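Q: Could you write out the predicted structure for this multi-component system? I'm mainly interested in how the pieces pack against one another.
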Amino acid sequence: IAGITQAPTSQILAAGRRMTLRCTQDMRHNAMYWYRQDLGLGLRLIHYSNTAGTTGKGEVPDGYSVSRANTDDFPLTLASAVPSQTSVYFCASSADGVAGQFFGPGTRLTVL
Amino acid sequence: RKEVEQDPGPFNVPEGATVAFNCTYSNSASQSFFWYRQDCRKEPKLLMSVYSSGNEDGRFTAQLNRASQYISLLIRDSKLSDSATYLCVVWGANAGKSTFGDGTTLTVKP
């Protein structure tokens, strides 16, 4: 693994299904983030984690949950997917705020 | 008012042109500033950090004006490959989270 990876690359999901988006980084960064980006719009923060064992809510947390059991992994779970959660999801990590964030390649999720 | 606001764009310029983007931020407690580049349907990539003294990386120059709370990005001698969306990012004023601008789209034409 080099940098930050996300899985799956894309997914089509039926409404009401549970889905977990995976994110793993090998840079030993303390902080990790989940964003969604809708067509033609900017990035919106869903949840974040400043260090392993802690998480916080971002701008649009409803319908999503996260966990940070260790430094490397930061999964995002949709408990019961709805069509409005159709979006591109980016995971990011940073050593600290001064260094900026590094993004994964994204997961394109379609909820039907 | 949004925490971070960028020029609405789009900017359409010929190759070789010089183009400048501005970005304003509302929270004076913001600590770090960045420009990111995002290509269509790809992840944002860090272009450069922005320092109070200003900094340059090849054809790109970034400036920070804390008194007026804005940052700028200047691209000289534009290339076709510079076509992308440029995101202004501010960090540190909101519980250690970054705030992204909505981006400015640049298209460089032959």
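A: Regarding packing and overall arrangement: The CA atoms of residues 94 and 101 of chain A lie 5 Å apart.
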